[in-house]
Amino acid sequence: MIKKTHIIFKNIEPGTNLFLRNEQFGELKEKYVGWYPEHYVLITLRAIPGIINFLNSRPHVDIIFINDGRVYTSKSQIMSYVFKPIGLAFLREPSSLLHQSVRSSKRIKCCLPGEIAPLEYSKYSTGIIVDISEKGMGFLFKNPLEQTLFRSEQKVKMRVYIPCKEEGIVIPSIIKRLYYRAQHRGVGVLFDLEQLGDEITIIQNFIKKICI
Question: How far apart are CA 158 and CA 121, in angstroms?
């Protein structure tokens, strides 16, 4: 049986920001590196004043990170660490994860043809829109390698093909995250509200229809 923690850690992209929190030392901002099932979670570790004494006490810590629109928190313990050639910490794999949504609007699961391109490009990457809300959507690339053409906070244009509409609706958007889903690669975007016109009304009406 696959534990839910395994599903989450498997889908976290290396380099994702996370926080270690401890009452004694405060909060450290680090990055996720990887995960060894049933053993440990590997993160970066900066050499800052007092860190050695803190680590040698093998403290219990809270891990905090965001994945797919949710904030996850879990309790763990620092098992080991190294500072050469780079700083890394090995954390005991959490047995459970608590989470809460950070999205202000609920995402609705769907399966719609879609395309994405940087604002300055005319060529689109094709794929599938897997969820949508009044403020954003999740998109999976048909060719996973095309995810490398995009970056976080990049301004893009999303073309959405809604049933009963012959032409796609182009929506100015901003990439908020890059993520993995099974063997696929995708992005999560927020609509650029300052650039939106009648497109948002069409999206809102579509969402209302599929929610009935």
Answer: 12
Give the max Cα distance, the chain.
65
Q: State how far the Cα of 54 lies from the Cα of 197, in Å rounded to an integer.
A: 53
DSSP, residue by residue, 113-171: EEEEEETT-SPPEEEEEEEE-SSEEEEEESSGGGGGG--TT-EEEEEE--TT-SSPEEE
Q: First vs last Cα of the chain: how many Å apart?
A: 35
pLDDT, tens digit (0-9, with 9 covering 90-100), for 56-69: 887 788 888 877 66
Angle at 95 between CA 91 and CA 176, to 5 degrees: 70
Amino acid occupying residue 92: R
The answer, yes or no, to whether residue 128 has pLDDT greater than 70, is yes
Cα dist. 61→6, 45, 71, 74 in Å?
A: 19, 14, 16, 8
Higher pLDDT pick, 197 / 180: 180
Mind listing the pLDDT tens digit for each residue in 66-110? 776 678 888 889 899 999 889 999 999 887 777 665 555 567 788
Residue 36, Cβ neighbours under 10 Å: how many? 11
25 close to 50: Cβ distance less than 8 angstroms: yes
